Amino acid sequence: MELERESGWQLHPIGGDTGQAYMGTRNEERLFLKRNSSPFLAALSLEGISPKLVWTKRTGNGDVLTAQEWCSGRTLDKKEMYKTNVFNIIKKVHGSHSLKRMLMRLGGIVLNAADLYEQTLFDLAFDLRNHPLIRETLVYIKENMPEDKNSDEKVVCHGDISHKNLLMSTDNHLYLVDWDSVVISDACFDISQLMERYIDPLNWDSWLDTIEFSREEISRKKMYWYGLLNLLNDLKYHHQKQDYIRMNSELLKLQMILNQIKN
């Protein structure tokens, strides 16, 4: 293929939604190669959040190919997502002023709560929009939208906190990878995604205590708001994929969260 000829590496596609990632091999060497990844990758590499960036190359058709060190290891198991090191790497991203400055220079998207709400509504399927539980959730989200922080208080958010995007190397270094969804937003956007996807809703409050999240009622209420928003987006994604088993599981979770809010 043309990309192999230009890069000088034999490319082996790696599974994923975008189809842009490859394992590159040449003689005994291996690299992780990706087409059109964010230029933000260099800053993440410098901070040790993603594996080391080796080189960047523009191909003949205008694509940008980036190469990172091939990190031997494994993605985390779902059951490991509650651990402190997962929260800590997310917290490290949120606390980095240099990452935020770099992303702002690159024209990073800044999203308020209202923007995220509109994104959720966009192309929401008719049958989802009219499901009683989802209608109730949309009403709650609209009526309880949190006040937006100003830009100075917003942080870099990964935007897709998933066990598939957390890589534990053989020397026990945890990396956060796949930054295609990165935005500048409220830290609750990321934290609630971790909470919504991997923590039993009955344990949300105790988990928030464990990570020493603010005990103020408004902060907890905001975290639940973002959790509901992320759950709706997951429902929308699995509906588009026609994964109705996961949809049904998420609807049960949605009912549980709404019941907790009412109580």
From TrEMBL:
Organism, by scientific name, is: Alkalibacterium kapii
Residues forming the Aminoglycoside phosphotransferase domain are 40-212
- Spans through the membrane: none
What terms describe the molecular function in GO for this protein? Answer: transferase activity
The name of this protein is Phosphotransferase
Q: Does the keyword Hydrolase apply?
A: no
**Assigned keywords, A-Z:** Transferase
